[in-house]
Amino acid sequence: CGVFGVIGLDQAANFVALGLHALQHRGQEAGGIVSHDPEHGFNSARRFGYVRDSFTKASLMDTLPGLLSIGHVRYSTAGSKGNTQIRDVQPFFGEFSMGGAAIAHNGNITNAAALRRELIERGSIFQSSSDSECIIHLMARSLQRDIPARMEDALRRVEGAFSIVAMTRTKLIGVRDPLGVRPLVLGKVGDGWCLSSETCALDIIGAEFVREVAPGEMVVITRDGVESRQPFRPKKSRFCIFEHVYFSRPDSILGGRSVYETREAIGRELAKEAPVEADLVCPVPDSGTPAAIGYSAESGIPYGMGIIRNQYMGRTFIEPTDQIRNMGVRLKLNVNRALIRGKRVILVDDSVVRGTTSRKIKEMILDAGAAEVHFRIASPPTAWPCFYGVDTPERSKLLAANMTEDEMADYLGVDSLKFISLDGLYRAVGEAKGRDPKSPQYCDACFSGEYPVEPADMIEQGFVM
Ligand code: 5GP
Ligand code: SF4
Ligand code: MG
C-alpha cells in the first residue's frame, strides 16, 4: 500500500490526491482520503480504482477541505483479499474522548487475528475485515490523555510491519515499526509538511525531501514543527530488500540510495554471476528495465526493447484473481517482432513468483522467432510468502518453493534460467561484504525463509516454516 499526508497547506486533500497518484504503483484496488478543517470537522471519501479517476473531480475534492489531510492507496494483503469491499478501504477513523483520529497503514500486522479476537471479546465493534483496524480499537482502550500517546500504547501491542500516517484535528503523525520494514519519508513544502511512503510522491508536489522517518520512530507534526518520539525498544533495522528490487518506484530514494541505480547494479551483478552468450538483452518492462540496462552495460551485449508495454495497464501481479492475472500478461505486454527475430535473447525480469509472466513471455518471444531465450532474474528465487505487506501467494503456488532452478527452467521451457544470489543482491544494495548471515541487514524472508518477526497468525493457522 501507499500512504501520504499533508499538514499546513491550503486544500491539503488536493496535495494528498497528487501524492497518492505518485504512489499508485503501491496499490491500485482502491484509495481513500480524510481531511479536517475546524468548520466542517473530519470528512472522508473512499473509492475503488485509480486515484486519477476518483479524486480529481472538483465536486469531490470540495468535500475535503482543510489544512490537514491523509490518504491511502490499497493493495490487499489482509482482510478481503482480492475482494475489496469499501469498508476495508483506509484511512480508518476513530472518535475518542479527546477528538477524532484517522490512520492509514502500509504493511501487515502479524498478530492481527489474536488481537481482533481479544478486542471483540472485550466489546470492540469491528467495521472491516482489515488487520489495520485493530490499531483504532487498541487506541480506544488506551488510558493515555492524548492521541499520539494512545497510538504509542496501541502500537506497542502490534507485531509485524507498519508504516503509518495518521492525523488528529491538529497533528499529522508518522510511525514506522521498530524494524522499519516499510518505507516512510518526511518532506517540507512551503509552510507545510508531508509524509509519504516514497520520495517520488514528494517530487510531484514540489516538496523537499527532509529525511526518512527512522525505524521505530514516531514523528508528531504540528504548526510548531516536528517532534520525534521513540515509542519502542530499539532494534536493528530490517528494511524490506524487495522494495529495492521491485516494489518502490525507480525514481525514489531509499536509505540514501537511488532505487534506479540499485537496480542497475543488480543487473551488473547478475551479468557477472550468470553470463551467457547472446545477441540482445531485453527487459520485461517496466519492472525489469533498470536491471536489464545494468546487465547490458556489464556484459557488453546490446540492450533493446524486445517487449513493449501498454502504458494503460497496471501491474499484473496486483490484479487479484488468477484468471485476470493470466490474461493480464498479454493485455499488458507485446513482442517487438522486428527486433527479436533470429536473435539469442536474454530476458531480464525482477522476480518469478508463480511463473505466469515468464511462461507467457517465453511463448511470445519464441513465436516471434527468437533463436534462444535465457531468463535472468534480478532477485533470488521467491520461495517463501511475505507476511509483511507484499501479497505473495502461499508456498504451494510459488514456483521456487516447489522446484529446483533446473526444474523451473524446464517448466518455463527456456534455454537457461538464473537468479541473482542473495549475496549478490546485498552487494547491489550497497553491502560490500554481502549478507551478514548472523544478523542480516535487511528483511529477505521471501528468499531466505528467515522471518524477522514471527508470523503468529499464520503459525496459528498451521503455516509450517
Ligand atoms: P509471476 O508471473 O511469476 O507470478 O510474477 C512475476 C511478475 O510479477 C514479475 O514480472 C514482477 O514484476 C511482478 N510482481 C508484481 N508484484 C509483485 C510482488 O508483489 N511480488 C513479486 N515477487 N512480484 C511481483
Ligand atoms: Fe520484503 Fe520479502 Fe521481507 Fe516481504 S518477506 S518484507 S517482500 S523482503
Ligand atoms: Mg514485472
3D architecture notes:
By secondary structure, the protein is α+β, with helices and mostly antiparallel strands. The chain folds into 2 domains: 2-237, Aminohydrolase, N-terminal nucleophile (Ntn) domain (Glutamine Phosphoribosylpyrophosphate, subunit 1, domain 1, 4-Layer Sandwich); 261-431, Rossmann fold (3-Layer(aba) Sandwich), CATH 3.40.50.2020. The protein contains 18 helices and 23 strands. α5 (133-141) packs across α6 (147-156) and α11 runs parallel beside α13. Bound molecules: guanosine-5'-monophosphate, iron/sulfur cluster and magnesium ion. Magnesium ion binds at residues 284, 287, 349-350.
Give the topology, please.
Elements: E1 2-7, H1 12-22, E2 30-37, E3 41-48, H2 51-54, H3 58-61, E4 68-74, E5 92-96, E6 99-109, H4 112-121, H5 133-141, H6 147-156, E7 160-167, E8 172-176, E9 185-189, E10 192-196, H7 200-204, E11 208-212, E12 218-222, E13 225-229, E14 239-240, H8 241-247, E15 253-254, E16 257-258, H9 259-273, E17 280-283, H10 289-299, E18 307-309, H11 322-332, E19 333-335, H12 337-340, E20 344-349, H13 356-367, E21 372-377, H14 399-402, H15 405-412, E22 416-419, H16 422-428, E23 442-443, H17 445-448, H18 456-460
Parallel strand pairs: 14-23, 17-20, 20-21, 21-22
Antiparallel strand pairs: 1-4, 1-10, 2-3, 2-4, 5-6, 6-7, 7-8, 8-12, 9-10, 9-11, 12-13, 15-16, 18-19
The structure holds guanosine-5'-monophosphate, iron/sulfur cluster and magnesium ion (MG).
The site of guanosine-5'-monophosphate has 20 residues, from helix 13.
Organism: Vannielia litorea
Binding site for Mg(2+): 287, 349-350
Active site: 1 (nucleophile)
